[in-house]
Write a structure and sequence with these properties.
The complex is a heterodimer of chains A (about 325) and B (about 325). With about 325 residues, chain A is an all-alpha fold. Chain A has helices at about 1-35, 45-70, 75-95, 95-120, 125-145, 155-160, 170-190, 190-200, 200-205, 210-240, 250-260, 270-290, 295-320; strands at about 150, 165, 170, 240. In chain B, strands 1-4 form a two-stranded antiparallel ribbon. In chain B, strands 2-3 form a two-stranded antiparallel ribbon. Classes of the chains: A mainly alpha (about 325), B mainly alpha (about 325).
C-alpha cells in the first residue's frame, strides 16, 4: 500500500515536472536576472532577446523533427554560414527577394544531401553531419576567401532588423509563423504521424507501409529550410555574412534547446513547445550572463553544465514515470 | 566478392597509401627521402595516438568528442606546472588531471545514462571554458629548454613522437587483443545487455575506456606543447574530427564490437600524406578541412556500400 502511494506520488511529480518544469526554470531564471541586473529588465532588452532567440528557436523546430526520427544533425552551424554567405553574395545580381528564395533553396538542398547520405548509404547521421560540418565550413571559406560579405539590400535587412508597427521585431513574427506551421504539420497532418511512427519504431513503420527513407530525407530537408531562415535573419541582423564567425557553436545551442525541451535522443515523440521555451532559456541565459558581466569563459562552462544537467533531468522524468531505469 | 570485401576491410587503407605514395613520388622529387617520410609519419602520429583511444571508445559502442579540449587542458596545465614542480611530475600530474576528465565522462555516461555524444560534447565546452579560465585567456610560454626534447628530439635517427606512438600501439594492441579487458570492450560494443547479463562489470569497463581516451589525448597534448613550447588553451581546434576520421578510415566499425588499431596507424599516415600533397600544390588551410571532410565521407560511402552488399549476400544465402 505504502509502496503504491509512493509510486503514485512519483508519477504525479513526474507528470508535473514534464509539463511545467521548463517554464518554471525559465521563470526562476528570468526573475534572478531581472532582480540582479537592471539593464535586463527593460522592454527593449526583452524584445531584443526574443528576437535573438529566433535564430536558435527556428532551427530548433527542424532539429526537433530530426531528433524525433532518431537522427541527429551537427552540421547546421556550418550550414548556416555557407547559406548566409552564398545567399548574400547573390544579392547584387538578383536582388534581395530572389536572393532570399535562392538562399532557402540552397539550404533545402544541403539538408537534402544530408538526408540522402543518412538514408541511402546508411551512414549514421552523426558521422555524416560531422563530415558535412567541415565540408560546409570549408566551402564557405573557399567561396569567400575568408572575406565577409556585406549586405546593403533593404529587403534582406528587414528580415533581421525590421519592426512590425515599429514595435515587434520581424524575426519574432517569423518565429511565430514557423512554429504555427510546424505545429500544424506535426499534429494535424499525416506527415506528422509518420514522423512520430518512424522515430518510435522504424521497423513497425516500414511494415505498415510508411516509406521510412523518404520521411527521414524530408525531415533533414525541413531542417535545412529552417536553418536557411535562421541564416537570413541572422545575417540580416549582423548586416554581413562572415564565413568564419557565423554559426559558431550554433549546433550546440540548438541541440541543447531541443534536448532541454524534452525531446528524447532515442527518437519518438518530441515537444515543439518545449523546444521553444528551451530556446528562450538558452538565449536569455547567455544574454543575462553577458549583462551581469560574467566572464565569457564561465559562460562556456555554464552552458555545458546546463546541457548535462538538462539531459539528466529528462532521465529523471522518465524514471519517475516508471519508464526506465535511472 | 565477399572475399574481396573482407580483404578490403583489412588492408584497404594500405592500398590507398600505396596509391598516394606512387602519386606523390611522381609529383615531388623530395618525397622519397628519409627525412620527408619520417616527417610525414611524425605529423601522422598526432591523430594516430588519440586514434588508439578512440578505437577503444567506438569499439565499446561509445564516442568521445572532448579530445581536442583535453589536449588544450593538458597544454595549459603543463605550462603552469613545469616552472613550479619540474618536468616529470608536471607531465604526470597533467596526464592525471586529463584522465580525471575521462573519468567524469565515463561516470556521467554510465551512472546518469546520458548519451555519450551529448556528454562529451558538453564536456568539451566545459573543459575549453575551464582551460581558458585557468590560463586567463592567455597563451603561456614555457622557458624550460629541456622540455622540447619530447616532441622534437630523436632516438636512433627516428623522431620521439614515432617511438611514443609505437610504444602506445604495442600497449593498446596487447590490451585489446590479449587481455580479458579487451574482450570485455568488444563484448559490450557488440551487445551491451548480453554483456551485462553474462556478468560483466559494464560500468567499470566503460569508465576505463573514457579514461584511456583522455589519457591518449593528453599524451598528444604533451607532444604538441613540447613542440610549440607554449601553453595554448584553445590548442588543436577541429582535432576531434580528424581523430574520428582516422579511426573510421582505419576500419573500426561504427556499430561497435570491432576495433582495428593497425588500420588507425595507416589511416593517420594516409591523412598526413594528403596534407603533404596539398602543401605541395600550395593551397590554403581551408582545403585541408575540406579534404578531411571529403575523405571521411568517402570512407563512409565505401563502408555503406560494403554493408549493403554483405546484407544482400546474406539474403541470397551466400555465407559471409
Amino acid at each position: 500500500m505504502e509502496d503504491y502511494r509512493l509510486r503514485k506520488t512519483k508519477q504525479k511529480f513526474g507528470a508535473f515536472w514534464g509539463n511545467f518544469g521548463l517554464p518554471l526554470i525559465f521563470i526562476i531564471m528570468f526573475a534572478i536576472f531581472a532582480i540582479s541586473t537592471p539593464s535586463f529588465r527593460s522592454t527593449y532588452n526583452f524584445l531584443n532577446n526574443l528576437s535573438f532567440s529566433s535564430y536558435v528557436g527556428i532551427a530548433a523546430i527542424g532539429m526537433t523533427f530530426v531528433i524525433m526520427t532518431g537522427n541527429f544533425d551537427i552540421s547546421i552551424g556550418s550550414m548556416l554560414s555557407l547559406v548566409a554567405v552564398l545567399g548574400s553574395s547573390f544579392i547584387p545580381k538578383i536582388g534581395g527577394a530572389v536572393g532570399i528564395i535562392s538562399a532557402l533553396l540552397i539550404a533545402c538542398i544541403l539538408g537534402f544531401l544530408n538526408g540522402i547520405f543518412v538514408t541511402k548509404l546508411r551512414i549514421p547521421a552523426f558521422i555524416t553531419t560531422l563530415g558535412m560540418l567541415f565540408v560546409f565550413r570549408a566551402l564557405a571559406f573557399i567561396y569567400t576567401n575568408n572575406v565577409p560579405v556585406y549586405i546593403s539590400d533593404r529587403f534582406w535587412l528587414y528580415f533581421g532588423n525590421g519592426k512590425l508597427f515599429d514595435v515587434i521585431p520581424f524575426p519574432i513574427l517569423l518565429m511565430g509563423v514557423c512554429y504555427g506551421a510546424a505545429y500544424l504539420l506535426l499534429r494535424r497532418s499525416p506527415v506528422g504521424r509518420y514522423i512520430i511512427a518512424v522515430g518510435t519504431n522504424p521497423r513497425a513503420a516500414a511494415l505498415s507501409g510508411i516509406n521510412v527513407d523518404n520521411i527521414k530525407i524530408l525531415v533533414f530537408t525541413l531542417l535545412g529550410l529552417f536553418v536557411g531562415i535562421s541564416a537570413v535573419t541572422n545575417s540580416a541582423n549582423l548586416g554581413s555574412a562572415n564565413p568564419g564567425l557565423m554559426g559558431q557553436d550554433f549546433e550546440f545551442q540548438v541541440i541543447t534547446a531541443v534536448v532541454l525541451g524534452g525531446t528524447a535522443l532515442s527518437g519518438g515523440n518530441g515537444s515543439l513547445g518545449g523546444s521553444f521555451i528551451a530556446a528562450l532559456i538558452v538565449t536569455f541565459l547567455n544574454n543575462g550572463m553577458g549583462l551581469m558581466q560574467v566572464n565569457s569563459y564561465w559562460q562556456m562552462v555554464a552552458t555545458g553544465l546546463v546541457m548535462i544537467f538538462a539531459v539528466s533531468l529528462n532521465k529523471l522524468k522518465f524514471f519517475l514515470l516508471g519508464q526506465g531505469e535511472f | 566478392m565477399v572475399k574481396f570485401l573482407k580483404l578490403y576491410e583489412k588492408i584497404g587503407i594500405f592500398i590507398l597509401i600505396v596509391f598516394a605514395g606512387i602519386f606523390l613520388a611522381i609529383a615531388s622529387p623530395n618525397f622519397l627521402k628519409t627525412d620527408t617520410i619520417l616527417n610525414i609519419i611524425t605529423q601522422g602520429t598526432y591523430g594516430v595516438i588519440v586514434g588508439f583511444g578512440m578505437v577503444l571508445a567506438i569499439t565499446s559502442g561509445g564516442f568521445d568528442l572532448s579530445v581536442d579540449a583535453v589536449v588544450g587542458l593538458t597544454s595549459v596545465f603543463l605550462s603552469l606546472l613545469i616552472p613550479n614542480i619540474g618536468i616529470p611530475s608536471a607531465i604526470i600530474l597533467s596526464i592525471l588531471i586529463s584522465c580525471f576528465v575521462g573519468f567524469l565522462n565515463g561516470l556521467i555516461i554510465t551512472k546518469f545514462g546520458v548519451n555519450p555524444l551529448i556528454t562529451t560534447l558538453s564536456m568539451a565546452t566545459i573543459i575549453r571554458g575551464a582551460s581558458l579560465l585557468i590560463a586567463k585567456g592567455r597563451q603561456i610560454p614555457i622557458s624550460v629548454e629541456k622540455f622540447t626534447v619530447i616532441g622534437t628530439g630523436k632516438l636512433m635517427g627516428v623522431p620521439n613522437p614515432i617511438w611514443i606512438m609505437l610504444v602506445l600501439f604495442i600497449l593498446f594492441f596487447l590490451l585489446l587483443n590479449q587481455t580479458p579487458y579487451g574482450r570485455h570492450i568488444c563484448a559490450i560494443g557488440s551487445n551491451e545487455s548480453a554483456a551485462r547479463v553474462s556478468g560483466l562489470n559494464v560500468t567499470f569497463v566503460k569508465i576505463m575506456v573514457y579514461v584511456l581516451v583522455s589519457f591518449t589525448a593528453s599524451i598528444n597534448g604533451v607532444i604538441r606543447t613540447s613542440q610549440a613550447m607554449i601553453g595554448i588553451p584553445s590548442m588543436a581546434p577541429g582535432f576531434t574530427l580528424l581523430v574520428i576520421t582516422i579511426t573510421i578510415l582505419g576500419g573500426t566499425s561504427l556499430s561497435g564490437g570491432k576495433g582495428n588499431l593497425i588500420g588507425a596507424v595507416f589511416a593517420g599516415i594516409f591523412i598526413s600524406m594528403i596534407y603533404y600533397g596539398l602543401n605541395l600544390i600550395g593551397v590554403q588551410y581551408f582545403y585541408q578541412l575540406l579534404s578531411v571532410g571529403l575523405v571521411l565521407l568517402f570512407a563512409l560511402f565505401v563502408d555503406g556500400l560494403r554493408k549493403r552488399y554483405l546484407e544482400a549476400a546474406k539474403i541470397k544465402g551466400i555465407k559471409v
